[in-house]
Amino acid sequence: MSIDDYWLDIDIYFISFTVSVKNKKKKIERLIALDSNIEEIDVEASIFKYFNNVVSIETIDLWQEGLLKNQNY
């Protein structure tokens, strides 16, 4: 068995974005882990899709590459 049998390649991004909550703006900063095959435009689309009330995205930086344990093993 090879390393690919046990681990999945991921990219870790530092993201910052602004949300609107009760007519107030709040800046959110997070690290998120995504499949390594995702393009930056898809990262942006995911932020708008999976976080509520996003007004703007300030930063999307590829921070680090990593491995995620394959759940099949």
Portion of residues in beta strands equals over 45%
Helix content percent band:
10-25%
**What's the main sheet like?**
3 strands, antiparallel
- The number of helices is 2
Strand order of the largest sheet: 2-1-3
Distance between the termini: 11 Å
Q: Which descriptor suits the 3D outline? A: elongated
Arithmetic mean of pLDDT: 94
Low-confidence stretches: none
Keywords:
3-stranded antiparallel β-sheet; 59% strand; 2 helices; alpha+beta; 73 residues; 21% helix
Describe this structure as you would to a colleague.
This protein has a three-stranded antiparallel sheet. With 73 residues, the protein is α+β, with helices and mostly antiparallel strands. The longest helix has 11 residues, at 40-50. It has helices spanning 3-6, 40-50, and strands at 7-21, 24-35, 54-69. The chain starts with a helix and ends with a strand. The radius of gyration is 15 Å and the shape is elongated. A hairpin with a 2-residue loop joins strand 1 (7-21) and strand 2 (24-35). The mean pLDDT is 94.
Helices and strands, with pairings:
Blueprint: H1 3-6, E1 7-21, E2 24-35, H2 40-50, E3 54-69
Antiparallel strand pairs: 1-2, 1-3
Summarize the structure in short.
The protein is of the alpha+beta class and about 70 residues long. Helix content is about 20%, strand content about 60%. A three-stranded antiparallel β-sheet has the order 2-1-3.
